[in-house]
Amino acid sequence: MVLADFTRSAVVFLTAALVSIGGLAAAKPDEASSNKSTRRAETTSPPNFEALKNIPLIVVIEKTAIHYTLFLAEPGVLAPHSQNEGPGSAYARIESLDPELRRLIWLTWVLDCWGSDKAEGLHTFFYLWGGDYASKVRDALFESGLFAQDRIFRQAIAAFGPVYPDDRATRTQFFAWSQPATVVDATTSIPQPLNAFDRKIMALSVAFGSRDEYGRAVEDFVRRTPRLAAWAAQSRAQLSDDDRLEWLTERLAMDEPKKMAVRIAAWPKAYRLLYLLDLFNGEMLNGGVHQFFSNSSGDLAPQVAAALREAGLAKHAEAVQKGIEMFAPPYPVDRQVRGRYFFVNGQTTDWDNKLDALTGKVDDGAIGAAMLAIAKQEGILPK
After folding, report:
1. Which residues pair with 104 in a beta bridge?
2. Would you write out the chain's pLDDT as a tens digit for each of its 383 residues?
3. pTM for this structure?
């Protein structure tokens, strides 16, 4: 079963689902262009580059466990990769595991369904499909010795009444979000105000602890269980280079590009190159060179062109430079100024098409390969 293509999707599909049901306002185009925007650090301090050389245990656990839990989501959220993949087969596979590993997988299901915001927690878990397997999580919490979390989790289950609704359709009726949202315009809607039940579950989520606190509790369970400690060590060794590089570049995307220009000037060269190359590559793969320049990532176009040259990607640097030269000099590093060039009168112009045509010159996989080579050569690919 090939799951690698779905790993990034699994991290963000909760956000997409919430948007579709009106639980969240529609994302702005620039915010939607990069999954990493949700991971930006809330501090202005530089990264701890030494710490970035080792992937935290909880990340190793999650990246491995997701191969079991990915298809537990309700049908339609992720299209089955084959006829053998879906909630039923995923559930059967988990239940066939030895008891300790099975408990760990169910513990990670809480993290899978936490939501895109660290503060969502149990409210999102029970509102969406996470709650379909609440009884399994409850048992795993108790059997793993996470008694404090187990007590709160049982209170959340009890809040639904004497018979817990395993099916989401029944469960969501308890939440205000199940009611029609107020439509603002064609792209934005406002959900109904939270009701007493919402507030109760949110209060229990606070008592349950933050995502980081819960993650540490899961880590402790793994460390004190020899079978799982060995499983985690093996899982770490089996992480792909792409997974390791992705985790690193996600940590480097700390702020909006305009502010990152000042930050990265003081970074070691290798990390600066990785940030700039990943910034361009992510936008280019998502929506082409046109998207790179139209979004705030284009604020760093001159730095990106220089980074591509430093990385030995002359052809790619030339394409970005041609894009830069399509704007009147001096190059506008302000997104709003650049915005005047795009979609004149709401229509795609020859200028737009010419800019987008540069994508064919850079969409060849060479940037990702160069990033991996830099990380390995400099000894900064996380272990």
Report:
1. none
2. 333 333 333 433 333 343 333 333 333 344 334 444 434 444 567 889 999 999 999 999 999 999 999 888 865 444 444 455 678 889 999 999 999 999 999 999 999 999 877 668 999 999 999 999 999 999 999 999 999 999 999 999 999 999 999 999 999 999 998 888 888 888 888 888 999 999 999 999 999 999 999 999 999 999 999 999 999 999 999 999 999 999 999 999 999 999 999 999 999 999 999 999 999 999 999 999 999 999 999 999 999 999 999 999 999 999 999 999 999 999 999 999 999 999 998 899 999 999 999 999 999 999 999 999 999 999 999 99
3. 0.79
Length of the chain counted residue by residue: 383
CA-to-CA distance for 319 and 299, rounded, in angstroms?
16
Domain ranges of the chain: 55-239, 250-377
| Residues near 171 by beta carbon (within 8 Å), at least 6 away in sequence | 126, 127, 131, 160, 165
Q: Are 91 and 77 in contact (CB under 8 A)?
A: no
Q: Which residues contact 70 (CB under 8 A, 6 or more apart)?
A: 3, 6, 10, 78, 90
Rg over alpha carbons for the chain, rounded to the nearest Å, is: 23
What tokens were used for 76?
A: 């339609």
**Cα–Cα distances in angstroms (integers) from residue 303 to residues 49, 307, 337, 375, in the given order:** 21, 6, 18, 19
